[in-house]
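[INFO] parsing input record for Lipid A biosynthesis lauroyl acyltransferase
[DEBUG] input buffer:
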Amino acid sequence: MKVWILRNFLEVFNWYCVLVPVVMIYAAKRTRKERRRNIETVMGKQRCGEEGADYYFSLLHNHWQLQDRA
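[DEBUG] output buffer:
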């Protein structure tokens, strides 16, 4: 009985030692890919000038609103 319990414990422990690092590596790779994709999206917008254009037009809009109030 003790041998059976010990053998089962070792088998579960061996799977745990293999499975946990594999899951952690998979999660780290997935997170890194997701971050890289987000960074590339932001860099693409900056390259195309979308963010700069949005900022410029929001400044113009705010300026026009201030002039209308005055």
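[INFO] The chain has one domain: 2-69.
[INFO] shutting down worker
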